[in-house]
Amino acid sequence: MRCIGLKGDMQVIRFWLIASFWVCFGSPHLVGAALTGKVIKVADGDTVTLLVEKKSYRVRLQGIDAPESQQPFGQAAKKALSEKVFGHGVTVRWDEKDRYGRLLGQIYLGEVWVNQLMVQDGYAWHYTHYSKDSRLARSQQLAKQESRGLWAGEQVVPPWDWRRGKRPLLEDSPEASRITQIVYVTPKGEKFHRQDCHYLGTKGKPEALASVRNRGLPPCKRCHPIEDPWGRFFLLNFRVPASPGFMVSFVHKTDFECAFLNNSSHVDG
C-alpha cells in the first residue's frame, strides 16, 4: 500500500513539475510576457500587428490614444507610427488584453519607448482615463508647449470625445471660426496641402490655415485643401415629403446617413 501511495505522489509531483516548466519556458505568450517580432501592419496611430514565429498578434499601444482614422490628424498619426515601427523588429511588453482581443502593451524599438515617442511628437494623447504614467503626462505637456503635431491647432478634439460623437463644428456655425483648421506645408513652403495629398511627401508639417494664408501661400490645385480641411459632414436638413418622420441628416463625400427623427423638423449639427 505504501508503494502505491508513493507512486501516486510521484506522479502528482511529476505533473506539477512539467506544468511549471511549461508555464515558465514553454509559453512566451502568457499575460505579462514580452514578445519580440516584426511589425507587419499599422492600422492607425495606436494599433499594430506583430508577427511572432508565423503567428500574428494585434497590439494596442497602452497608455496613449491617437486620433481616429477619420478624425483630423488621424492619417498623420498612422503615418508617424508607420515610419517608426513598420517593418522593424520590436519588443512588446504587455500584461492584459482589451475587449477586442488586442494585446495592451508598451512597444520598444531597441531602447526607444514608442508609446511615449508618439505622445512626445504630438501624434497621440496621454490616455489619462487608463494611465497615470507621469512620463506620458510630461511628454504631452511638452508637445503642447511646443505646438507639435496635432497641438498646432488652437482647439483639438480628443479621440475619446470624437468616439462619443463630438465633431468639429459646421463651417457655417457661429462657433466654427474659433476652430483652427490645419493644413500641411512642404519644406520649401511653396503651397499648402491636405494631409493625404500625393504631392506632400513625407516631410510635410502641420500649420494653421490662417497662418499660411497670412504668408500668402496658395493652396495645392490637386488636393484642394480648403474645400474640406476637417473631413466634415455637410448639413442637408431636408424632409422626404412622403415620409414625415424621415430626414437625411448628414452627407460626407459619397457616404450618407439617414435618420428617423420622431416629429422633428431639424437636425442638430
Textual characterization of the structure:
By secondary structure, the chain is an alpha+beta fold. It folds into three domains: 34-152, Beta Barrel (OB fold (Dihydrolipoamide Acetyltransferase, E2P)), CATH 2.40.50; 168-214, no CATH class; 233-269, no CATH class. The chain is 25% helix and 29% strand. The model is unreliable at 21-30, 170-179 and 228-269 (pLDDT under 50).
Low-confidence stretches: 21-30, 170-179, 228-269
Q: Classify the secondary structure makeup into a structural class.
A: alpha+beta
CATH class of the largest domain reads Mainly Beta
Topology pattern, helix = H, strand = E: HEEEEHEEEHEHHEEEHEEE
Could you give a quick summary of the protein structure above?
By secondary structure, the chain is of the alpha+beta class. It has 6 helices and 14 strands.
Describe the secondary-structure layout.
Blueprint: H1 2-26, E1 34-44, E2 47-52, E3 55-61, E4 64-65, H2 74-85, E5 89-97, E6 103-109, E7 112-113, H3 114-120, E8 125-126, H4 134-145, H5 159-163, E9 182-185, E10 192-193, E11 205-208, H6 209-214, E12 234-240, E13 243-252, E14 255-260
Parallel strand pairs: 3-6
Antiparallel strand pairs: 1-2, 1-5, 2-3, 4-8, 5-6, 6-7, 9-10, 9-11, 12-13, 13-14
Helix pairs in contact: 3-4
